[in-house]
Amino acid sequence: MTKAMFVIVAFIVVGVVSAAHSVADEAPISGTVKAIDTSGKTLTLQTTAKGKTRDVTIVLKPESRILRFARSTEPGKTGFVEHSLSISDLKPGWIVSVTTRHEGGNEVAETVTVVMER
Hints:
Elements: H1 3-24, E1 29-37, E2 42-49, E3 52-59, E4 65-71, E5 80-85, E6 95-103, E7 106-116
Parallel strand pairs: 3-7, 4-7
Antiparallel strand pairs: 1-2, 1-6, 2-3, 4-5, 6-7
């Protein structure tokens, strides 16, 4: 293999590994709502992982979705129905799961799903 071909293959491998790492790093964040800043559009969660508790601040953008699932109240319908909420509907103490993406050093919410209301 020529030196130029080796360099090209090395760049491709590094690119694939970097892409896989960034996808793996985008796992949902679950925790208890600690604080809600409706004017700053942020949500602070208290999370616990590997026995350590920490606070994570998540930025909400206009395209971020906040969802709650509830049993259907319509006669004859079974299962759960998706309800959209606003940031002001969230309450401290609720448990949520948030899918995020990294943007400028911040965790930005794509979807906030209410798991349990307390």
